[in-house]
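Quick one before lunch.
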Amino acid sequence: MTRFVCIVVLQACLNGLTVGPLAAQNNDEGLPAVYRETARAIINAALGDGQAYAMLEELCLQIGPRLSGSPEAAAAVEWSRNKMVEVGLEGVRLQPVMVPHWVRGPVESALVLNSESAGSVQLEVCALGGTIGTPEFGVIGEVIEVQNFEEVKALGKSAQGKIIFYNRALDRTLMTTFKAYGGAVDQRSRGAIEAAKVGAKAVLVRSMTTALDDVPHTGAMRYDDGVEKIPSAAISTIDADFLSRLLKQDQKVRLRLTLSAKTFADAPSANVLGEIRGSEKPEEVIVLGGHLDSWDKGHGAHDDGAGCMQSIEALRLLKSLDLKPKRTIRAVMFMNEENGVRGGLAYADSAGRSSEKHILAIESDRGGFTPRGFSVTAESAQFESIARWAGLLEAMAADKIVPGYGGVDINPLNKQFGVPVMGLVVDAHRYFDYHHSDNDTIDKVNERELELGAAAMAIISYVVAMEGI
Ligand SMILES: [Zn+2]
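Model of the zinc ion complex:
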């Protein structure tokens, strides 16, 4: 008897985990049954026989990181075109675009010179994207630690000839890691400009990561016309803490920074496009995209091979279920998000010249983690129209559709033409552990999490393709 009860209870629990009480709680009840069934079929296809991870593995292991202008980026363009053809997309084509061509070069070193308490110590650094190189034997200077640009300005003439060390950490108390990143990244993007204004000769920037690790995290930096260009490198968070301690112990810490980075003339490259053409309104387009380029670190797996493969996978899932959207759904592999956004701008430019009407663009560029929903930039009526489908994503707990940012590559569509844009929101607590570093490799991506993101994109793009906005 006891045993029987246990079995009954167990069965009830299992039902609860699948279709029993859970279905009763779902907010998809008011939605048309055909879409509820379609959403469940898409999720089943994604989890049962998804291909996003296998595609990402191929991209990561056969090609690797794909910095704009590099041979690997060119190989990724060809690979993506072939993959789109292989999964049966229509209208597969390249959209040519010229991209910046910056190369890290083989030398990047920061050597603490004969400090009183630690002697000579090599620090873990890497060139920031876009930096100039140093002379062959580096630049040598005394290190000054700062937290922000106000402190740099206050240094005045005392910064002349020094190496400015920006050491403001990401705020780990913030629940949204992107906010923590946003609160610190000015040091990386504008640090060299502000330091050069007070006569500094180089810049070291604490890596933009919530983790304490020994790998430097790169990323874009820039120069301003009229301000001297000075070399700029990221330092690992462990070595940033070490250097900070050293500066508290010793009167003076001198350091030799050597970088062999170079910028060449712009190089030809391309966005890659493929689609399922709409059966009734083919001229109305929904874009699904990620950026194909990455930094030259790790595999560019989460950033943003994941978003690219999810975009292709979303279309493949629809095709595998023989779903025929009324409007066109197009996957776009954008080139050059990291250091120029040339692909995103070129795509918007061509959309502006085309007779097509873009009704929605969705980007996945926050890592291939468990999806939580979408953040939408749109007018309120458009937002409501999109948000009414949230219940279809509830089974995978990805139903938070909230106002917010779309994505770097699709932003020009919104800015120039008012196209509603939305970004896939994920559980991003681990994202900045990997972001722009040697840690961003395929083994950090979970197959189910990646695939669920593709399913969420497939579901939303499909219902919007059927019902419009
Ligand atoms: Zn990215």
